[in-house]
Design goal:
By secondary structure, this protein is α/β, with parallel strands linked by helices. The protein has 2 domains: 184 residues, Rossmann fold (3-Layer(aba) Sandwich); 87 residues, Methionyl-tRNA Fmet Formyltransferase, Chain A, domain 2 (Roll), CATH 3.10.25. It is 19% helix and 26% strand. It contains 5 helices and 12 strands. The strands form 2 sheets. A 7-stranded mixed sheet has the order 3-2-1-4-5-6-7. Strands 8-9-12-11-10 form a 5-stranded antiparallel sheet. It is elongated and about 65 Å long.
């Protein structure tokens, strides 16, 4: 039984970069360039010299008849892949998920965990079932989220765990892992995050706002606010003053070294990496919407 790796997006590219340093080169199934309408999509043609790759342009296995022969006698491992792609498939499928399931099921697991200030996340591998992200767990590993970590830092920890599992699966086979049913009473399902969810509300306290900015940072679309009707995207920030009243929320308190300190509902936050605003053209007392 061979492993057929289904992967896509920025995280999938990170995984292939990790795997190509070793001896295991699984057959890769990914989406054709331009098929995905998402800012997370990546061009996998650069891996064609390192892996056998099949490119598809469909979101269901039923629309990809070429997979029937590829999957014959083999097992699918999905890392950052459409969750209902294999609905009704008659062959074994293992999905990865960036959380300690049954917590944070759904497409927005990483963003939600950063938004909530989760300190202990993880990687979970589970057998596909009729319930999305609800199958029996066969492998799980904790991943620590430090206070200064951002989503890309999480993925730098998550991808090696995925690569480690793929190697273990190749050596042991699926029968070499136990099966642990998920407790449905502990399940937390998430809605997919949209751009409107990333809007920065400076009325929040500095700590909550810091987590909000982290949650939507790269590789996601970024938290943002409006200034004079123009959108400014914040990629990185730091909590400057944790608590206290420093003026009307959204007011610039100080500017130094192109970093902008802004009053929050409680405390202040330092905007350290922004697109759409120029610190040189701002002044103390200016207010962001």
């Amino acid at each position: 039984m061979d492993i057929i790796l289904f992967t896509a997006n920025v995280t999938g590219a990170m995984l292939l970069d990790t795997l190509k340093t070793g001896s295991l080169r699984p057959h890769v199934i990914t989406y054709s360039k331009g098929f995905q309408r998402t800012g997370l999509a990546d061009d996998f043609t650069r891996f064609t010299n390192d892996f056998p790759i099949t490119f598809i342009s469909a979101n269901s296995h039923e629309k990809c008849p070429e997979l029937e022969q590829i999957m014959k006698g083999n097992i699918a491992v999905c890392v950052d892949w459409t969750k209902d792609f294999f609905a009704g498939a008659g062959y074994p499928v293992i999905y990865s998920h960036p959380s300690l399931l049954p917590l944070y099921r759904g497409y927005s697991a990483v963003t939600e965990q950063f938004e909530r200030g989760v300190a202990v996340s993880g990687a979970t591998f589970y057998l596909m079932s009729e319930q999305i992200d609800g199958g029996d767990i066969i492998y799980q590993q904790k991943i620590r989220l430090d206070f200064n970590d951002y989503p890309m830092d999480f993925y730098q920890k998550y991808i090696p765990v995925c690569a480690e599992f793929i190697h273990e699966l190749n050596m042991r086979g699926p029968e070499g892992f136990g099966r642990t049913p998920q407790n449905p009473d502990s399940a937390v399902y998430l809605q997919r995050k949209r751009t409107r969810d990333a809007l920065i509300d400076f009325n929040r306290d500095a700590f909550s706002l810091y987590n909000h900015i982290r949650a939507y940072s790269r590789p996601f679309f970024g938290a943002y606010f409006l200034m004079n009707g123009q959108k400014a995207t914040v990629w990185r920030a730091s909590t400057e003053k944790w608590q206290g009243d420093y003026g009307e929320p959204g007011t610039i308190i100080d500017i130094y070294d192109k970093q902008i300190e802004v009053a929050c509902g409680s405390g202040t936050i330092m905007l350290t990496d922004c697109d759409g605003i120029n610190a040189d053209n701002l002044s103390i007392g200016c207010q962001f919407a």
